[in-house]
Protein: Cucumopine synthase C-terminal helical bundle domain-containing protein
Amino acid sequence: MTTPKRVEIGWPALGLAVTAELDNRNAALAQSLWNALPYRSLQGHALVAGQHLYHVAPVHDLLYQSAPYKVEDRRAEPDGTLFASRLQHLGIKYGELTEPMPATPIGHVIPDDLDSLLEAGEAVWEAVYTTKKPVIAEVRRAGGVGGHSVPRLTAAAPEVDALIGDLHAETERIWLEPPQELVDLHEGRIASCAGSYETVLTTLLFVNGETRPLGYAAYGGLVRAAYDGMPLGPLRQMARVLIPTPAEFLGYCGLEKVWDFTRRTLDCLDGIGDRDDFTALMAHMTLYLNCLGGWNLHLFPWQLGDHLRRVSAPA
Structure:
């Protein structure tokens, strides 16, 4: 009988940790996570789905890895279920969920640790919604050493590999520290004066709305399309269609590095003659954008809408 792979997920700032067992329902996904351990990441919390923790995992394979077993509605899964997604998230259900979406489970928190998981979930919600004090998750093999690294892919073409190197360095730099561009934006320092009548919240809202799909859907979608066998010609064309407009807008709003990296990516396209080079570059852009998206969700002033509460339908 195979010994279950046990993972420890800890939040040192909260003094809490849980142990989870990976299972074989989506063995390849679970193995990809296992191979990437240990790592650290900014802990996030679902904002519309309910009692759900998630963070960006520095695992390129999650973008395209096959997941043969899916649950049609994650709301029905037991508390403590671990999910891995193509959004590069490691998620944990710790209570009631409201969003009826399919999901790919890879394991579960052991029963003895469910109370600690609930305590962690409530504390992370307070950090994301109110205090804005970052909570870092530490994920490692149970009984193993901690640590952290962002994996670096390589490309045969020198220009592409150099761009990947710069993306990797920037992603590592902001992985556990909020990017100064986002800090400036959230504190109202906007060089372009984006925000009609000197408003800031409007700009923050649009930046949040563009950053997440640029990483999740555009760049991440290009990685998946490449692994699904789309030829390089159409991949290049789809890149030109999907990524320039939102990236240029984000640059105008203050995320100038996003626009700079995107322009360099577009400039490289015609010189990419190898599918692996294309995929490596798009994977690093995806991870960089997903990291930015995580910080933006943490920094966003959600508490400003505290007076807006859901109204229950009449009985």
